[in-house]
């Protein structure tokens, strides 16, 4: 597997992009603003989108992606998510008010978009690649994902606050290599982190102590303006591991 980070910021501005990751050349993990940097040919090759949750910074490029390249594709774009997230997309986005309903356009028998409901703990296999939905603890129903090539696994927590169920699964991954974990706020915004079910460095430190396996750890979803402060607080909060900031354009091969 090859995973390219198209966006990993908790906001926009300058060169910052919100969460989107390109797996090989045909799978998106979330579809934030970073998708807009792809070429038309690259967008056409995307067949699958795995969505963590319904918040705008993780789904905003799905409507534009479908509208831009749907007519150039021979099959519908498949969007995978838990039922609550798909309900939100149907009700609040592809509703012919905010955006056309491309699950019935241009014709109901040949739409540009299809939904595939998945459940927490379910594994989807795509050409030998295993993608498993993991429990998350967020303000709306949400998941993270484990990407398993067979040789190694990468875990992306998605947006989450403290989450014991995640570690129960992660600690059973025998080939774990990478962990991408959100830490959206600095410690100054601890109350906001708790209320919105995100992590800050002090909460991150409590969570990472639950990890019993070695892994390379990367921090994502940092808020613009507080990135350096938050990463310094992360470094001061943990001793055993050396988390690094996830970067736009970074590539993982596993």
From TrEMBL:
Classification via InterPro entries: Metallo-B-lactamas, Pdiesterase2, RibonucZ/Hydroxyglut_hydro
Domain Metallo-beta-lactamase: start-end pairs: 17-188
SMART domains: Lactamase_B
Alphabetical UniProt keywords: Hydrolase
Domain of life: Bacteria
Enzyme Commission number, as recorded: 3.1.4.17
Pfam name, any one: Lactamase_B_2
Record GO terms (molecular function): 3',5'-cyclic-nucleotide phosphodiesterase activity
Amino-acid biosynthesis recorded as keyword: no
Listed name of the protein: 3',5'-cyclic-nucleotide phosphodiesterase
Species, as recorded: Undibacterium arcticum
Lineage: Bacteria, Pseudomonadati, Pseudomonadota, Betaproteobacteria, Burkholderiales
């Amino acid at each position: 597997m090859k995973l390219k980070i198209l966006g990993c910021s908790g906001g926009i501005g300058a060169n910052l992009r919100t969460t989107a990751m390109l797996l090989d050349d045909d799978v998106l993990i979330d579809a934030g603003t970073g998708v807009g940097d792809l070429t038309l040919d690259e967008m056409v090759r995307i067949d699958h989108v795995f969505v963590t949750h319904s918040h705008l910074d993780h789904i905003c490029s799905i409507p534009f992606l479908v509208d831009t390249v749907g007519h150039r594709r021979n099959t519908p774009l498949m969007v995978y998510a838990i039922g609550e997230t798909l309900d939100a997309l149907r009700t609040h986005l592809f509703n012919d008010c905010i955006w056309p309903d491309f699950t019935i356009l241009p014709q109901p028998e040949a739409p540009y978009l299809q939904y595939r409901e998945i459940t927490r703990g379910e594994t989807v296999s795509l050409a030998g690649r295993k993608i498993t939905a993991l429990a998350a603890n967020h303000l709306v129903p949400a998941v993270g994902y484990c990407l398993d090539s067979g040789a190694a696994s990468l875990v992306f927590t998605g947006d989450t606050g403290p989450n014991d169920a995640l570690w129960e699964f992660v600690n059973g991954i025998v080939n774990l290599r990478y962990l991408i974990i959100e830490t959206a706020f600095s410690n100054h915004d601890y109350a906001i982190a708790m209320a919105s079910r995100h992590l800050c460095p002090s909460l991150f430190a409590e969570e990472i102590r639950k990890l019993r396996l070695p892994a390379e750890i990367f921090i994502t979803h940092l808020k613009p303006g507080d990135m350096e402060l938050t990463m310094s607080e992360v470094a001061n909060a943990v001793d055993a591991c050396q988390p690094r900031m996830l970067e736009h354009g970074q590539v993982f091969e596993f």
